[in-house]
Amino acid sequence: MMMLYRTSDLPRTIPVFPLPGALMLPRSRLPLHIFEPRYLQMIDDCLKTEHRLIGMVQPRAQKSGDGRELQSIGCAGRLTQMSETEDRRYMITLAGVSRYRIMREVSGFQPYLQADVSWDGFERDLGKPEVDQKFDRPQFLKLLHRYFEAQDLSTDWDSLKDADEELLINSLSMLCPFEQEEKQALLEAPSLATRRETVVTLMEFALRGGGAGEEILQ
């Protein structure tokens, strides 16, 4: 399998998989259960390519002013694992490679969506894991414990204490039950520190009893 380290290695047209609430970030892994015929075809076609990239993207809650129904920024992942069930469903894992910006949607003979994309501005995604210099792990875990209790969530706290900050913050961004627009804000965060600050804001807001539909991300 080809390893991609530079934006020049990445294809300019990729298959796109719109999925509400599904957040993938660079250097993270996203498991997916594929059963719709058009997306089964997408996986079959992806396996025939050298790069094996699929672009995850979230639909917009409402159409944008230009009529676009998808968010402009998504994240592409490399298909690294796949198993097939007896009734021909796929269990796959995508390894996050880089965020991208949709330039235009491409019409073709495939039953699934493709898009011309730009990788410009996301070069950091292809580098080494980010470091959050101001990350206060004890304080963050204290808030996280309160949030998990309030949401009736469970986790392996010992593993969280040892996880590096990028893995911890990105995993929580992907797994916590944040709203769709909030997950998009986490995806578009320009740095790991900004993403951590956003996660903290969202957890504190939930603990104060913030309800769905209230605007906190401007």
From TrEMBL:
Q: Which SUPFAM superfamilies match?
A: PUA domain-like
Which Pfam families does the UniProt entry name for this protein?
LON_substr_bdg
Domain Lon N-terminal as annotated: residue spans: 14-207
Q: Which Gene3D superfamilies match?
A: LON domain-like
Name the InterPro entries on file: Lon_prtase_N, Lon_prtase_N_sf, PUA-like_sf
Q: Which PANTHER family match?
A: ATP-DEPENDENT PROTEASE LA (LON) DOMAIN PROTEIN
User: What's the protein called, per UniProt?
Assistant: Lon N-terminal domain-containing protein
**Species this chain originates from:** Jannaschia helgolandensis
